Amino acid sequence: MNYLKSLYKFRRFAASYFTYNCASCGKTVRGGCICRNCAEKLSPAKSQIKDCAHAYIYSGPAKELMLKYKFGEDYDYCRDTLSLWLLDAYRNFHGEKIDFAVCVPSFNKRKTRLYELSKEFCALADIPFAPSMLKKLRKTEKQHTLSAKERYKNLSGAFSADPYVIGKNILLIDDIFTTGSTVFECSKALYEKGAAKILVLTVLKTEFSD
Ligand SMILES: [Zn+2]
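^ thats the input. predicted complex w/ zinc ion below
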């Protein structure tokens, strides 16, 4: 077992002795960030797009948990659950050979919350994490403020991949799949440098995004 995997497993074990507030309803829950009642309301997400996988639909408790992780001040304890959701979604790719994983990069910040989540997931899944293989070249508008057409324009040419990606099978990780414009632009940059195959893994997807 790799060192990081042991560390994350220990952290998870230690967390099981503490109580937290459910990220959705606020009820006290032991060792996690979502209570059993809210967990039962999660809707599994099936992707209609080949080579894409997601865990749940972006609604209800899943949406509240993700918003807490993305924007909340007290967010770190949500990561253990989100990385397990990524692991569940990743099982859809069984048998696929993956050389390494990257996550959607930010322009000016290397260690984003998505970076931390992807790093934990990769340790659990025994996949090498190589975030420096994909870079964002410029600052862009926040995607959720734009229409579908504007989203593609906003991100056009915003990413660049390292030449090392040539011939590699790459897992591309993001938090939410909405129109697919972000992962499309990232995949384009990776394919332009000769990547062999891109598999897209996101924690959640919006209901009508296929
Ligand atoms: Zn709850």
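The chain has seven helices and eight strands.
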